[in-house]
Amino acid sequence: VQLQASGGGLVQTGGSLTLSCTASGVADEYYAIAWFRQAPGKEREGVSCLSVDDGRTIYEDSFKGRFTTSRDHAKNTVYLQMNRLEPQDSAVYYCAAETTIGACSFIQGTYDYWGQGTQVTVSS
């Protein structure tokens, strides 16, 4: 399984970005894709997760209402739409796949595969 994350970049405060995570080599649709992020000097934290087979999503509380995750089945791609971005959102964003049972969580150890990360920088 390989994950390709893309879509990061530089955006001004209040702006939006959409990140993409494309999965290849997955045997079936029973997997989950989560987004995590890591800012300099901070621990990696969970952002959102989507179960690909049924489309269910979960979000860490601090991102509810501002970030939205969705999927495109045909493209094996999961998106993270980020709105009203703030400088504190600057981080490397990673997508990760859980391929055992396809269940969402923010327990990083349950994720089997990780993408390379994409940098998001929000200027003030």
Mean pLDDT: 96
Provide the succession of SSEs: EEEEEEEEEEE
Quaternary state, please?
single chain
The computed structural class is mainly beta
Q: Sketch the major β-sheet.
A: 7 strands, mixed
> Number of DSSP helices?
0
> How big is the Rg?
13 Å
Distance between the termini: 37 Å
Overall shape: it is: globular
The total count of strands amounts to 11
% residues in beta strands: over 45%
In percent, how helical is the residue content? Answer: under 10%
Unreliable runs: none
Q: Can you tell me about this structure?
A:
The structure is a single chain. By secondary structure, the chain is mainly beta. Helices cover 0% and strands 50% of the residues. It is built from no helices and eleven strands. It has strands at 2-6, 9-12, 17-24, 32-38, 45-51, 57-59, 67-72, 77-82, 91-98, 113-114, 118-123. Strands 2, 4, 5, 6, 9, 10 and 11 form a seven-stranded mixed β-sheet that branches. Strands 1-3-8-7 form a four-stranded antiparallel β-sheet, with no helix packed on it. Strand 5 and strand 6 form a beta hairpin. The radius of gyration is 13 Å and the shape is globular. The termini are far apart. The model has no long low-confidence stretch (mean pLDDT 96).
Descriptive terms for the model:
globular, seven-stranded mixed sheet, four-stranded antiparallel sheet, mainly beta, 124 residues
Short summary:
The protein is mainly β and 124 residues long. The protein has strands spanning 2-6, 9-12, 17-24, 32-38, 45-51, 57-59, 67-72, 77-82, 91-98, 113-114, 118-123.
Secondary structure elements and pairings:
Layout: E1 2-6, E2 9-12, E3 17-24, E4 32-38, E5 45-51, E6 57-59, E7 67-72, E8 77-82, E9 91-98, E10 113-114, E11 118-123
Parallel strand pairs: 2-11
Antiparallel strand pairs: 1-3, 3-8, 4-5, 4-9, 5-6, 7-8, 9-10, 9-11
